[in-house]
Design goal:
Elements lengths: L3 H14 L9 E2 L6 E5 L2 E5 L5 H15 L10 H9 L3 E5 L2 H10 L2 E2 L4 E5 L19 H17 L10 H9 L26 H17 L7 H5 L8 H7 L1 H7 L23 E2 L2
Parallel strand pairs: 1-5, 3-4, 4-6
Antiparallel strand pairs: 2-3, 2-7
Length: 278
């Protein structure tokens, strides 16, 4: 899987280190993102070509990750406070081409701690029983934002650095410590991310996503293992419990108060108002 998290990091680096992509006085990003919605003080900004229903869908998924019991209050105040302080932002584009064009133009002052999600990968109808379904990338990209800018910033055990508990678990899952993806993983590895642009900290972000969503049931449907098995083999709760004891203990540790129920976009805690700029 080519994570949009990685693509976005690459695009940011492209803008920062390629002078031809920069302007002396970039415009405010609000001129690009004409649609927005706020979720517990966090912004979701979207281009005009992003469908309204996709934006609201992303808002509900974000809300359910943060308020998993749907009582209208965030479950982990420490993580939420960190996300707010870092101004963690979800940026929604119609597709990757639109995002890349915007970044390459150098016209806009994009938020620093941002994660991308594309309309064409946002699938509101989440049906685990369908054999022809597409995975809803909202479950991945929103979670990347929350873990990278929130959980991994608050808890030492979840930090995206060598020696943290989640890093130690990942090294076991990969069959050893590798700063960059090896040309071939050990045969006993069950996590084998192979994108060479993904650094060690990035691989922890991906590992966090695979582990938690597998525990919550997002990866357990017909045909899914065939799609992801080259990268992640423990796609069900039972496989995690028996095959990766360390990550299971971390993901279910009450200290972190991670989500226990997979978001389904049927959020009842609060209503969301989509704001439009003219």
């Amino acid at each position: 899987m080519n994570s949009k998290f990685l693509k976005f990091v690459f695009l940011i680096a492209l803008i920062l280190f390629n002078p031809s992509c920069q302007k002396e006085n970039p415009q405010d990003h609000s001129k690009l993102f004409l649609k927005s919605v706020t979720v517990f003080g966090l912004d979701i900004l979207a281009t005009n070509s992003t469908a309204d229903e996709k934006i609201i869908h992303a808002a509900k998924i974000m809300a359910q990750y943060l308020d998993n019991d749907e009582d209208g209050v965030v479950d982990n105040k420490l993580v939420h406070d960190m996300l707010v302080s870092r101004k963690a932002t979800l940026l929604m584009f119609n597709n990757e081409n639109e995002a890349e064009s915007a970044w390459r133009s150098g016209k806009y002052d994009f938020p620093e701690n941002a994660q991308a999600l594309f309309d064409d990968e946002t699938i509101p109808l989440f049906d685990n029983n369908s054999t022809n379904r597409r995975f809803d990338a909202t479950l991945e990209e929103v979670l990347h934002l929350i873990t990278h800018e929130g959980f991994s910033q608050v808890y030492d055990e979840l930090r995206e650095v060598k020696g943290s508990l989640i890093a130690n678990a990942m090294d076991i899952a990969r069959g050893g410590y590798f700063l960059n993806p090896p040309s071939r993983y050990p045969s006993n590895a069950w996590y084998s991310y192979d994108d060479i642009t993904c650094s060690y900290d990035c691989m922890i972000v991906e590992y966090f996503y695979w582990a938690l969503t597998s525990i919550l049931g997002a990866q357990d449907y017909p045909g899914r293992l065939d799609e992801i098995g080259h990268e992640w083999k423990l796609n069900t709760l039972d496989k995690i419990k028996s095959g990766d004891i360390l990550i299971y203990s971390l993901m279910t540790n009450s200290k972190f108060n991670l989500p226990k129920i997979l978001p389904d976009s049927n959020y009842n805690g609060i209503n969301f108002e989509l704001k439009l700029k003219k």
